[in-house]
């Protein structure tokens, strides 16, 4: 009798274990307004989008904000993991399973308003100025492909927004980001949102996605893609963009 009871307890515990969904470890970087830390927890447009996606699919998701390079590498080495907001470029295409696009915007090169001497109209002319990029970011490889070099016309930083004070002090000539991001970065530094002006759009970089580990279950990735499409049709992404860009974010 004792043996039978033990078996029943064991089997019930086993059944509960196999019904419990695995924890998804999702990584992101400090990239206001898409992802950042507030009051000790991750927040932002795409953080909230991932939370809602996981809730709708009844998935247990743990979101962590890390320096971009660590976030990117973690997602490559852990099966039940992913990294966002990840630009889907040709070089990255075979490295992940892709779900998206999620909230993103076109990238531009920006100069400080009034610095008319910083006047490139294309990438070739931009090589004559000091450009800030984030370490390991898609724009680092993008500019390298176009002939930019560290120590000559590129400076690297931990995050995309870190060089804003140097940009304002005229020690960095060019920033890269979206118009939405730049407004947030300037606001967070207690600066007027029109302190920077866009020079020209950066082509062929790719929209932002959730990039899942290559060994991530295919069927689950497909469910996430279908649910995300449903959320897009319902207007969820646009609502989140409006909510977070209208607010004052860290």
UniProtKB/TrEMBL annotation:
**SUPFAM superfamilies membership:** Periplasmic binding protein-like II (SSF53850)
Indicate the secretion signal residues.
1-17
Query: Per its UniProt record, what InterPro entries does this chain match?
Result: Solute-binding_3/MltF_N
UniProt keyword Coiled coil, yes or no: no
Q: Which Pfam families match?
A: SBP_bac_3
In this protein, which residues make up the domain named Solute-binding protein family 3/N-terminal? Answer: 29-245
Tell me which UniProt keywords the record has, alphabetically: Signal
Question: What is this protein's record name?
Answer: Transporter substrate-binding domain-containing protein
Species: Rheinheimera baltica
Q: What is the lineage of its organism?
A: Bacteria, Pseudomonadati, Pseudomonadota, Gammaproteobacteria, Chromatiales
